[in-house]
Every structure is written in structure tokens, then in C-alpha cells.
Amino acid sequence: MNKRLARTAVLCVWIALLLSMYAYADNFAIVTTRTGNDTIDWGQLGVTFTTIASPASWTSTLGATGSVSDLATLERRDEGNGWDGIFSIGDHLLWNQDNGNAIDIHFNKPISLGGAQIQDDFFGAYMGCIQAMGSFGSSPVLCVSGNNTGAEDNSAPFIGIKDLTGGNITDLLFTTDVGPNATAINTVSFSSSVVPEPASLMLLGSGLVTLAGAARKRMRKS
Fold it and tell me: ω before 55 within 30° of 0 (cis)?
């Protein structure tokens, strides 16, 4: 009986290892081109110069929900109306008022990728960065370089992050390196969490069946 229990334990370990191949592994990729199937337009939080207490709720174009916060207060600005930077004229922006806190976008349903164009609130070169949070803990911090010339020419770099395992991101944190962290972002683009393909599920199921069958044969022989 003890041998059977031991073999059952070994089988459970193998099953856990196989499942881990399809479970989360903190693999991330930087995204520098706007992509995604949904967006968050900050115009919903008020007109330019509106002060926003944290956290504030948002609803995406396709009906996803979440909140935005920065441990203090945020402010709405529009490029060309309260903001002279390198976004496109008329872009609805979210600004952390140079308070040094990261802009934290929380998603009520996990996503697979997300990002926005980012800019520092001072003229000159800067680094715009993003970090993802989720069931995995925290991702590496990924950054792009930018240069705020005030030209209002849509040259603000896009900084995004992709979860290569399918989608366990619950928060996106945006920061810049000047100010410190005098950060503004425009529309957030994102994609919802990816469901495993049927072929992957079938492969997983067949693997579990094979392992279970092999274990039963070994127990009968013993």
C-alpha cells in the first residue's frame, strides 16, 4: 500500500509539472507600436484641468472596467489646451501633477498586453517606463526614450508590455525619469486575456491521460 501511495505521489508531481508548462511564467516583451483591441479614453474623466481623486473608475470603448490611481491626485489635460508637449493636438491626457507617483491603471479583468504614449512634463530628453503587475507579482521595468520638444507632433513614444504566457496582467504602472516622475499618458490601448486554444487543451489532456495510464501499469506490475 505504501508503494502505491508513493507512486501516486510521484504521479501527482508529474501532473503538476505538466500543468506548470501551461501555467504562468513571467515572460514579458516590450511593445513600442500601438496595438490592442480596446482603448481607454481619458476624456471620460472630465474636461481639461479637471482634478481627479484616486482611485477613479473608467470604462473602455468595449465595456471593460477598472480604475486609475497614483496615491495622490491626477489631472486631465488636452494637448494644445493646457498641455504643450509632443502628443497629437486634441489628445485626452492623464497627468500625475508631477507628484512623483506612478500612474497605476487597474483592470478588473486581466489583460494580455497594454500600453500608451508617454511623455515627461519637462522639455528635453527623458525615459518613459512601464511595469506590469498581476498574479505573477511584478514584471521587469521596460523603458523607451523620448524627447519633449513641445512640437505637438505625435512623437511621444508608445510604451507597452505583453504577457507572453497569455494574459495575467491586472495593473499597468507608468513612470518617467525626470521631475522626478512628472508623467503624462494619452489613450491606453490593450487586449483582453487570451484563452488557451483548443489544441493546447487537447495536448494537455492527452498528456495527463498518458501519464496516468503509465502509472497504473507500473502499479499493476508491482
Answer: yes
pTM across the whole model: 0.77
> Could you count the other beta carbons within 10 Å of the beta carbon of residue 58?
20
Distance between CA atoms of residues 100 and 184, nearest Å? 12
- pLDDT tens per residue, range 14-43: 444 334 433 444 589 999 999 999 999 999
In a domain, 140, yes or no: yes
What letter does residue 44 receive in the DSSP assignment? Answer: G
Secondary structure percentages of the chain, helix, strand, coil, to 5: 20, 40, 35
Question: Using CA atoms, how far apart are residues 70 and 209, in angstroms rounded to an integer?
Answer: 48
Beta strands in 24-157 (DSSP E): 28-31, 38-40, 51-53, 56-59, 65-69, 73-79, 82-83, 92-95, 103-120, 124-134, 137-138, 142-148
At residue 166 the predicted structure's pLDDT band, cuts being 50, 70 and 90, is confident
Using CA atoms, how far apart are residues 75 and 166, in angstroms rounded to an integer? 33
- For 169, the domain range is 25-195
Please tell me the total count of domains within the chain: 1
